[in-house]
Amino acid sequence: MSQAANAGRVGPNAIIRVAEALRASRGEDVVETVFEAAGLKGYLDQLPTEMVDEQEVIALQAALRDQLGVAEARPIARDAGRRTGDYLLANRIPRPAQFILKRLPSKLASKTLLKAIRGNAWTFVGTGVFDADPSYPPKITIQDSLLCRGASADQPLCDFYVGTFERLFRELVNAKTVVTEVACHATGAPSCVFEVRW
C-alpha cells in the first residue's frame, strides 16, 4: 500500500506497545480501563496486526492521560516507545544495517539513521509532518503530532516518540544518547521538537 493510501494511518505499535507497557506497570484492570475509555477495548481481544487509524492513537494517548494523570501517563508512554524501539530493532531494521551503523562514527551514524527514520516517518506520524536536522545536536521536528494533538499541558507529552528515538539512537549511534522533547505543541509551541545528545 502506498504512503498516500495510508494517509491518516500508522503502524500498530502505537497501540500494542502501550498495552504492553500499561500491563507491565499497572496490571490488566488498568489496561482495560484505559482502552475502554479510548473506545478501543476490542483490541484487547485481538491486538491489531495492520496499520491503524491515527484517530485511535490520538484517543489512546488522551485516555492514558485522562485516566492516570499526566505525571503517571508519561513514563508509561515512554516505556511503550522504548518497547517499539525494541520491536523495530528485532524485526524491521536489517541486521547488516545495524552492524554498519554501530561501527560508524556517532555523527555519521546519526545522519544515516535520521535519513532512514525520515523515509519511514509516514508509518508513525500519520498526517503529521516529520523533519530532521542532522547537525549536532540533531533535532527531530514533528508538526501536528498524534501524541499531543488536541491536548494542552504545562509539559511536553510526546514521550512515546522520546522512548522510541532514544532506544534506536542508544543501540545504533551512541550508548550515551539522551533524547529530550524541548518543545511541544501541547505547551503552545508550533511543533514538537526532540533534541538528541550524546
Write the layout of secondary structure elements.
Layout lengths: L8 E2 L2 H14 L1 H10 L14 E2 H15 L1 H22 L3 H9 L2 H15 L1 H4 L3 E5 L5 E5 L15 H14 L5 E6 L8 E6 L1
Antiparallel strand pairs: 1-2, 3-4, 4-6, 5-6
Describe the structure.
It contains eight helices and six strands. Strand 3 and strand 4 (139-143) form a beta hairpin. The longest helix is centred in the middle third of the chain and has 22 residues, at 70-91. The strands form two sheets. A four-stranded antiparallel beta sheet has the order 3-4-6-5, with helices on one face. Helix 1 packs across helix 4 and helix 2 (28-37) packs across helix 3 (54-68). It is of the alpha+beta class and 198 residues long. The mean pLDDT is 96.
Q: How would you classify the helix and strand content by structural class?
A: alpha+beta
Helix content: 40-55%
SSE sequence, one letter per element: EHHEHHHHHEEHEE
Number of alpha- plus pi-helical segments? 8
**Average pLDDT score:** 96
How many strands, which pairing sense, and closed or not: the largest β-sheet? 4 strands, antiparallel
Gap between N and C termini: 37 Å
Number of beta-strand segments: 6
Output the strand order for the largest sheet: 3-4-6-5
The radius of gyration over CA amounts to 16 Å
Give unreliable regions as ranges: none
Shape assignment = globular
Note the beta-strand portion. Answer: 5-15%
Features:
alpha+beta; 52% helix; two-stranded antiparallel sheet; 8 helices; 6 strands; 198 residues; 4-stranded antiparallel beta sheet; single chain
